[in-house]
Amino acid sequence: MAKRKRLTPAQPGAFSPAAKPAAALAPRSGLGPAPIAQVAGEAAASAALADLAEAIEEARSSGRLIEELPLDAIDPQYLMRDRLEQDEEELQALMASLRARGQQTAIEVVALDPPQAGKTYGLISGWRRLTALDRLYRATGEERFATVRAITTTPDSARAAYVAMVEENEIRVNLSFYERARIAIRAMHQEVYDSQRAALQGLFAATTRSKRSKIGSFIPVVEAFDSVLRHPTAISERLGLALSQALARDPEFRPRLRARLREVQPQTVEEELRLLNDALADPGRATPVAAPSRPRLRAPETPALAERVTAHPAPGLTLRFTQAQNRIELTGARVTPELYEALQDFLKANTASK
């Protein structure tokens, strides 16, 4: 009886895309064509590689693959952020943790196709981790801080992306009612939702009906005072609801309080809260009190310290004007080199004779 040849296990790396079956590395000198077993083995190896590549791509698209991405490849303002302020002490604590233990939890990004302004990924959640790593890299220059662990997801829509951001922050950080109302407004401005009711139900579906109602009550407050408030996240639930009721009851309350905020320009949380409470108690009073406040880190898309006007001239375009800085900012998916050149030509043609 013929003796059967013993099969040996596959070597490490045998199924990598660059690997070739061992028998294919050297010609069979004078031995004629390869036996059918070798041909079958090569076909099986190719099929295994194809299956592996498909499995990796499926894991990436379904958000189960963690990758190392360069910090400068990620656009942190892909979505308008829901968090307005971040405590500086908390950020320093996060940076200390990253120094000691490295990044423990991946951020969430979406691939940009085509890339926008040199960025190939847009940030969905993980702004604090991305900011902390960026600070560490700028301060130390260490390569271990030059990349971030990220999960690439493929949201079904812009709605899904906003919901993912909100849910991640709802779990990790207790957002204020003001911040929740503000992101609902931003989502409506971006035409992600066509109504306030749809925005609240879509973004905060996991919360209770009473909580959604309270967030909705803060929406008029955000719309009325977002550009003139300096510490809006300090507004309590009770104060926010009182301000909302005052706006509904008195048409003159909004312009009166906006004028007072511009005139007094309260510098601390305590000053601003005192002014708001005084306005509710007596529209003629404004007696801010000085008190120290902790330093705050402003996240992207925060209200300006002076008047800021925001408009949406076309889908995919957001136009902002900040009066105190004499600054005009145009952002969005439709900002392209062609639009930049067209704006240059327009400005040259309309300012040459002035």
From TrEMBL:
Any one GO BP annotation for this protein: chromosome segregation
InterPro entries, A to Z: Chromosome_partition/occlusion, ParB/Sulfiredoxin_sf, ParB_N
Bias (Low complexity): 12-27
Pfam families noted in UniProt: ParB_N (PF02195)
Protein name: ParB N-terminal domain-containing protein
Location of region: Disordered: 1-27
Residue intervals passing through the bilayer: none
Ranges of residues in domain ParB-like N-terminal: 67-170
One GO cellular component, as annotated: chromosome
